[in-house]
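Changelog note: in this version the structure field was regenerated for every chain. One regenerated record is shown below for reference.
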Amino acid sequence: MLRLIQTEEFKTIISSCSTNEQEQKASENFMKRIIDLCDAEDDAISLFRILRYTRFRLQTLQAVYLMDGKGKKCVGATMCH
């Protein structure tokens, strides 16, 4: 389940030290990684668990950024795709 959140792209997205450009590029690469995983994973139950856990982490992160008044950052863009 931790497969997607342990990637460099995810770490860049959640990092407070990342620039907007780095976050945008990481978001795009993260979405590509999700698509690749969906294409490669044969076990639908395992894929569902990975995606649900990743979604949970992104929603939690989005809520934290919205409460801090920092806006949606790149997480909002990631959640839309």
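Spot check on this record: The chain has four helices and no strands. The radius of gyration is 13 Å.
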